[in-house]
Input
Amino acid sequence: MDVMERIDQQVKGNPVVLFMKGTPQFPMCGFSSRAAEALNRCGEDFAYVNVLADAEVFENLPRYADWPTFPQLYINGELVGGCDITLEMYQSGELEKAVKAAINQQSGAA
Output
């Protein structure tokens, strides 16, 4: 499987996935740390990919959705954006609603 297929599989196979530098427990940059913290505060589990652990993903993810920076948040297979957009959505309450809706949709809950 080539790298673009692997990225696509992660994006489409998880209701919420954050491509970040490091992990939510050990973020390796401030932007990734803030985005992961906003997601954690939504109270739902989310998938993540440590782009520093996979050079192919690190090099090719910016081409996947034409978004040049990390982190990148995807909800229901759609690019939401990076750190700034994630934080704006969190502050407005939109992020928690979107995350909970995506998780509930995947689990079949109403």
User: Anything to note?
Assistant: The first helix runs from residue 3 to 13. The two ends are 35 Å apart (CA to CA). The longest strand covers residues 16-20.
